[in-house]
Amino acid sequence: MACPTVERLTEPCFLVIARDIEDFDKAARLRTEHLDGHLAHVEAHWRRYLNAGPIRRPGAARLIGSTFLIFAKTEADARAVLNDDPYFAAGLYASVEIFEQTISIGRFLGGKIWASAEEIRSKAAGG
C-alpha cells in the first residue's frame, strides 16, 4: 500500500529532549515523588502534545530522560508549558534541548506531507 499524503500541520511543533540527572537514585526518587503532579500537568495540557514519554537505552528498564513533541507558538511558549511541569520544576532533568521540528511522516500523522521529492527538495538543504 502506498503511503497516503495528508495535510501539513499548521501549528509549530518543538521536539524536546530532556535527559535525567546522572544520580540514578535521586532521579528515580524525583520521578516517584512528582509522578502525580507530572501526570496531572500533561493530562491538563494533552492537546499541546503530539507525543511525549520516557526514554531508555534499548533493552534496558532504567529511564534516562523524556522526549516531548509539543505544539507551541514559539520556543518560549514551549518552555513556559514545560517549566510548569513538576518534573522540570523539581530538577529531574540535567539537560534540556529544544528543536523546532517539521512533522512530516508517520502513523500519528496518518501519512506524509509531501506529494513528491521535488516539492520539498529546497527544504531538504535547509532552505
Show the helix and strand layout.
Blueprint (H helix, E strand, L loop, with lengths): L12 E8 L3 H10 L1 H10 L4 E8 L6 E9 L3 H9 L2 H4 L3 E9 L3 E2 L4 E2 L4 H8 L3
Antiparallel strand pairs: 1-3, 1-4, 2-3, 5-6
Q: What name is given to the CATH topology?
A: Alpha-Beta Plaits
- The count of DSSP E runs of length 2 or more, i.e. the number of strands, is 6
Distance between the termini: 31 Å
Uncertain runs: none
Helix content: 25-40%
CATH class: Alpha Beta
Biggest sheet overview: 4 strands, antiparallel
Radius of gyration: 17 Å
Q: What proportion strand?
A: 25-35%
Number of domains: 1
Q: H/E order of the elements?
A: EHHEEHHEEEH
**What general outline do the C-alpha atoms trace?**
elongated
* Level-2 CATH architecture: 2-Layer Sandwich
Q: Determine the structural class based on helices, strands and strand pairing.
A: alpha+beta
Tally of separate helices: 5
- Roughly what is the average pLDDT, rounded to an integer? 92
Strand order, sheet with most strands:
2-3-1-4
Instruction: Give the CATH H-level superfamily.
Output: Dimeric alpha+beta barrel
Question: Care to give the gist of this entry?
Answer:
32% of the residues lie in helices and 30% in strands. It is α+β, with helices and mostly antiparallel strands.
Structure in words:
A four-stranded antiparallel sheet has the order 2-3-1-4. Strands 5-6 form a two-stranded antiparallel sheet. Helix content is 32%, strand content 30%. A hairpin with a 6-residue loop joins strand 2 (49-56) and strand 3 (63-71). It has one domain: Alpha-Beta Plaits, CATH 3.30.70. It is built from five helices and six strands. The longest helix has 10 residues, at 24-33. The chain is α+β, with helices and mostly antiparallel strands. The chain is elongated. The chain starts with 12 loop residues before the first strand and ends with a helix.
